[in-house]
Homoserine kinase (Halorubrum alkaliphilum), 293 residues
Amino acid sequence: MVTVRAPATSANLGSGFDVFGVALSRPADVITVERADRTTIEVTGVGAQYIPEDPDSNTVGAVVDALDAPARIHIDKGVRPASGLGSSAASAAGAAVALNELYDRGLSRHELVPVAAEGEAVVSGVAHSDNVAPSILGGFTVTAADGTTAVDADVPLVVCLPDVAVSTRDARRVVPETASMDDLVATVGNAATLAVGMCRSDPDLVGSGMCDPVVTPERARLITGYDDVREAAFDAGATGVTVSGAGPAIIAACHDDRRQAIAASMLDAFAAAGIEARAYQTKIGRGATILEE
């Protein structure tokens, strides 16, 4: 038996659409695997009732097939589905790490990223790595055509998750197909600023680099109360605010002493819009961790 804790993640971070991602110190999924002749999946935890246990429909089933590693699999969900926090990626990443260990496949963490990405294709239709990469590798990740780069970073974050759902497929439908040259230049500059900020663990640079004039405005329209929540976070001291992944979670970068005030302000803003929400005072954390064998 192998048990793995796989962290929630935030992809895009505004300016890094389909490229940037970070592992979050909380919340997380816990995946336990045992050798078996055929694969079975049991799901418990938050939102478990919405997650299929049929291996052909669950992200983990694709990982099992890719590694040729049938198992009895239990997924204890700490990351809510349709949250913008990489819920499906956490399960796929945790299963990839656990099954690689259980069957002694000998793959490196970087080699497991495309394996876990196959699981993402089950949910979104495309094998994206921007969530599975940080969930496996930890830290801040940059995913390009030739692979993924990961760096450790120490940046405090607040994630506010409203009690509404935005599907990844719906969020991808609103992404513009073209961008102006001015918007392209601005986005590249912001992404470069954010990356430097991550390398320096500088919340001010990270926050200023989150600004994105192309994708985020379109996705923000899917989140009731977004503008007010964003303004409340800035008023409380956030250095940057954007949609986490496909949403509806909203992520704010900040200095450590402002996390509590920012979390409270974001919750109050959602409440004023008539929406219940939960806030996580978190930070950039480790990748998938083996808990027991």
